[in-house]
């Protein structure tokens, strides 16, 4: 089975069987339960379950990869390679509840491989402005990238993993092999840099 990643084609919405209101922790637990069911089915080589699993994590993968790679073509390559590796090795995952952390670790390694190979590396400033004019989403994505790439490299990925992916500092520490205290310090400094970026953007009347 071959899955082809096309940015923007997957949905992040989970199926819901009721209109019950959940607390954050209840919703997180319910979400994790649904993910674990899909992981169990994917381990049995159920292609539909695996496809749904990847669809649910597409935005997570894009946000993480965009913290490491500046160009969409490289990001798409990293995600595609991650999908293939996850499919090949999902039966080696020992605890299903850690699927997302395991998948992100694979993705980070794929991104680093691309950085080392020097594939299509460009600066954010060199991204074509026309792409940002196509849709509101494209504009938001470009602003998100500019904000991210305004951060020091050692803060960038931690900020994404904490704010965009919802990982706790202890989880990030294990993922990146850093002490929890280091993660917290870098997160705080990254937050300060983001605040300065947005303050300067507002004072300057937004992007030019």
Write the layout of secondary structure elements.
Layout: H1 24-43, H2 47-56, H3 58-66, H4 72-89, H5 99-117, H6 136-148, H7 153-164, H8 169-176, H9 180-203
Helix pairs in contact: 1-2, 3-4, 3-5, 4-5, 7-9, 8-9
What does this structure look like?
The structure is a single chain. With 208 residues, the chain is mainly alpha-helical. Helix content is 64%, strand content 0%. It has nine helices and no strands.
Query: What is the radius of gyration?
Result: 18 Å
Q: Which geometry do the CA atoms define?
A: globular
Q: Considering DSSP H and I runs of 4 or more, what fraction of the residues is helical?
A: 55-70%
- Count helical runs: 9
Mean pLDDT: 78
What percent strand?
under 5%
Structural class: mainly alpha
Largest sheet: none
Multimeric state of these chains? single chain
Distance between the termini: 44 Å
**N-to-C series of helices and strands:** HHHHHHHHH
List unreliable stretches of 5+ residues.
Answer: 4-18, 121-136
Number of strands: 0
Question: What's a concise summary of this model?
Answer:
With 208 residues, the protein is mainly alpha-helical.
What tags apply to this protein structure?
mainly alpha, 208 residues, globular
